[in-house]
Amino acid sequence: MTARLVVGTIRARRGERHDVVLPDGTVVPVAFDGEATPAIGADVVGLFDPEAPGTKHLTLVHDVTRLIMSGRARIVTGGRSDVTARMLARMTQGAGIGAITPGTGGIIERTPTVEDPDLNWALTQLAPEARRLGLGLNVIDPLALAKAPWEDRRLKEDLLPADTTGDLGALEDLKRIMAEGFTPACRRTLFGLARGVQVPSVDFVLPYSPFETGHSFSARMAGAKRAEVTRLVIPGPDARRLSSFREIARAFAPRHLGRQRGNQVVAAHVEATFADVAAALAYLAAGGDPRVIRAFAALRQAGFARSPRAPSSHQALQTVLSVGSLIRHNGTGEILKNAASLAKSHTPGTEEAILALRAETPEGDVLFNPSRATASERDATAAAYAEDCEDAIARLADVPVALERMGRFGLKTVPLGLDHVFDEVMDRMGAPLAGFEEEAVPMSFGSPWDQPPP
């Protein structure tokens, strides 16, 4: 029979075989012909014969145009006809093999090319390690998301590095995150086992909120209330670097942590600590300011003392500061390995031990209420906050709709008493503050620590 030309998604690897999810949602174990080895989480374009006896084989297609013109394959669109339609449209424009790029041959890799230097800082280090491990990262560009039309079709086609199966789970999760104020997230599908360890297929990583400032990032880490401001503020560019590295690093957690002791609560603490420590080690290895990591540790300590869901990563971060210069950094893989070791050794082994540690952990003097501060403290805080807002707003200033969204979403993170500062900066930079009715969504803000998916 004529083979089917399909677009599928790699969801797991079992030895030499890969689990491929086809457009209709069917999961098929296949062996790939040729030398190319797709990453878990990548999409592939290839020839597949579902009625072939024995082991099913998928042959990656390097030149889709030539294959279609030869008449030796029929196109199967399944639940994602938009993928095939876009592929064919690009071919008719003379794109040729470019119809299935970026990537190599019939492998579609979804990690974007971004201009943001802070996200690129993290991607440059972690993408090669992901390729070495065969892991597709699927990172969303936050600035592109802030500026794009928020329609399901456009999100799927232009921004969401989702799979080809037609499953709306990733899209719905992204929309929920958007409605909740763009909390950074790493959405994974744990699908199958390899060498006794669950292998994550990364649906998407939202590395940071495009509407977050250094103040709001610091407040989120410390579990601050709306009436509180942090005395320690991580600058916006540093906050974006730490947030980007820690969220992308979570894609590697199952690989480096393996099967963990304790229950799900303990495992979640270990994973969050792993991500925090990995970001701190990478930041310091790149010549970052130790004072930023010192502030990060203090903010995490306050958050842990306040919130039952916040990770106990402050101890490991303090260890990074004391012995970080003694740790050798032979590449990103070594950073992740060291982060896993520190996370395991500094996280209590039981839920009861975590509760006991929280009870004896002081918040520290990192939060204050501006309404109860002196006039000079309020003036200094307002000036620092205005400068912080200008940095975040300037990144969106070339697209009016992005500024309008900043006015809606960014305002939700402004500490009470500093609303006028935010409004003044928005007005000075020409951002509209009223009359914007597109995609109105109910707003809510959850924990300062976003738990990994079960």
Protein described:
- By secondary structure, this protein is an alpha+beta fold.
- The protein has 2 domains: 3-95 and 103-108, Nucleic acid-binding proteins (OB fold (Dihydrolipoamide Acetyltransferase, E2P)), CATH 2.40.50.140; 117-359, no CATH class.
- It has 17 helices and 11 strands.
- It has helices spanning 64-70, 81-92, 117-133, 142-147, 152-159, 169-179, 214-222, 236-249, 253-257, 264-285, 290-306, 314-323, 332-346, 351-359, 375-394, 400-409, 419-428; strands at 3-14, 17-21, 27-33, 43-48, 56-60, 73-75, 107-108, 185-194, 197-206, 229-230, 367-368.
- The chain has a 5-stranded mixed beta barrel.
- Helix 10 (264-285) runs parallel beside helix 12.
- The longest helix has 22 residues, at 264-285.
- The radius of gyration is 23 Å and the shape is globular.
- The chain starts with a strand and ends in a 26-residue tail after the last helix.
- Mean pLDDT is 77; it is low at 71-82, 87-105, 161-167, 192-197 and 434-454.
Question: What does this entry show, briefly?
Answer:
This protein has helices at 64-70, 81-92, 117-133, 142-147, 152-159, 169-179, 214-222, 236-249, 253-257, 264-285, 290-306, 314-323, 332-346, 351-359, 375-394, 400-409, 419-428; strands spanning 3-14, 17-21, 27-33, 43-48, 56-60, 73-75, 107-108, 185-194, 197-206, 229-230, 367-368. It is of the alpha+beta class and 454 residues long.
